[in-house]
Description:
By secondary structure, the protein is α+β, with helices and mostly antiparallel strands. Helix content is 32%, strand content 28%. The chain is built from ten helices and 14 strands. The strands form three sheets. Strands 2, 3, 4, 5, 6, 7, 9 and 13 form an eight-stranded mixed beta sheet that branches. A four-stranded antiparallel beta sheet has the order 10-11-8-12. Strands 1-14 form a two-stranded antiparallel sheet. The protein is globular. The chain starts with a strand and ends with a strand.
Amino acid sequence: MTQAVVARAPGKINCYFRVGPPREDGYHSVASLYLAVSLYEDVSATAREDEEIQVFLHPDSTAVSDPESFPLGPDNLVVKAATLLREHTGHYAGVDLCITKRVPIAGGMGGGSADAAAALVACNALWGTGLNREELSRLGARLGADVPFALHGGAAVGLGVGDELAPLLLRTRTDWVLVPASYGLSTPRVYGMLDRLRANEQVETPSEVDPRMIGALLDGDLDALAPLLVNDMTRAALALAPELGVVRDVGEAAGALHALVSGSGPTLALLARDQAHGAEIIAQLSDEAGVATLQVHGPVPGAGILPTPIETP
């Protein structure tokens, strides 16, 4: 057993997600409102004597049903993050990285991006490379559009492909019930479906998040906020997984103020009035639908070092 530097980064939900038409580079311009929530990925970093980068999955990873199928090779984002950091800094040290996954995989909650953010923070601390958060964010953007937000956390408006962030000084807590699916949806596949569904429609490039929604969120006005929650990806996710519509309807019938797909899905996010109301929704969903649920809140901070290192296998 050995001690290690451990970093923790949050998953996210998209309270607002407008998607423009496909661009020439294959991406889509978006207008998003990100909210970091209290469901976390942990990455521990332990120095090696050689220059290898090895990745392991912690046995407490609740989001992984089949550990044998979880990819631990060079395509894993924590490997890419550690490799990018040492190439950028010239610090060619080895590291063992152990991931504790709790955010649903391919669930539209940015779990892979949280892994990358946590790996950047952990390796930066372990190696003493001294990059500040802005420098780490610029590196993170090369790994994925959601990585800079996982580093900063809190709440933010995201434009461009989601990486042009404008933080919101949000102090009002919101409570959510998450309904993870037993399967994932590939983000490119959902975007492709959305493009097919909108093939004959005039689609505008979004330029802002609805100011009324930002105001309702800042004020903590849940009754005003609920009808403004929107995600253009919902129709595509429902086309690929129609059962999500049934669960969404059950969630709203159970008392949720609003239910929407987070990101590209298939995780559903149900807005509750407070923590106690969220517990009531969970009880009713369990009784009526028998679905698995998670209770979270936001905003929470972005990636950071845990004060007490954990022991890793």
